[in-house]
Amino acid sequence: CLATGRPQYNSEKVFEGYIGAGVDITEQKFLQQQKDNFIGIASHELKTPVTSIKAYTQVLERMFRKNGAMKEAGMINKMDGQLNRLTSLIGDLLDVTKINSGRLQFNDQEFDFNKLVSDLVEDLQRTTQDHVLVASYAAPQFVVADDERIGQVITNLITNAIKYSPGSKRIEITTKASENEVELSVRDYGIGIAKADLNKVFEQFYRVTGAMQHTFSGLGLGHYISAEIIKRAGGRIWVESVEGEGSTFSFAIPLKKVKS
Ligand code: ADP
């Protein structure tokens, strides 16, 4: 129950209690839970057919290529790209359901942080001709964390840098290492984020609105999921940005998570 109230005193100035209003939030909680359940079931149901369609498109693309039908193979390849987008949106919805119900799991293991970053940079460079990913690496550093989840954060930061800097080519990816943590920053020279929105970009379903932002589509979940992953890895995530000039998203995680 959410309550707001004013303390009441009798004529001897002795506290008697509060006068105010109470709002029952059981109903709100129930609705929130229903919404989470629905998102969970819907995204789970969407995942199966999408996975199956994806498998067929890959077979088709191979067949077309083998028969020299390059135009058709190209079209199927475009379909596959859109299916990847769909798979990633569904994945984000599933992750949010897991976060909200406390079921997001982590499999920690030791891995080479720079290698993870450089593999992803290489993969993502292949997806774009309009951008150049310029990476510089600190001395090698091994981290104990869930490499897939940390990779998900890195991918999210770089794909957002690409997405929100349509007019500029350069994206800088830098790793730093200190005695007890590693840091990654992704700098773009794109549309940037207004000061008032800076803290909100890590909130669930938050999307910046404004003249520059309205042409970009998305669910507003990527940064929320990233922030949750980094928090669970015992680290911190932050953003610096100037509207119209670009943004730098960074995170730091400890080499080994301190058990809490
Ligand atoms: P979305 O799916 O909308 O991209 P995110 O959670 O990844 O969701 O990002 C939240 C919002 O933060 C975005 O809608 C966008 O307005 C803003 N944003 C994220 N990354 C950048 C960036 N590199 N430059 C400018 N704005 C960004």
TrEMBL record:
Superkingdom of this protein's organism: Bacteria
Ranges of residues in domain PAC: 1-37
Range covered out of full length: 624 to 883 of 883
Domain Histidine kinase: 41-257
Name by which UniProt lists this protein: histidine kinase
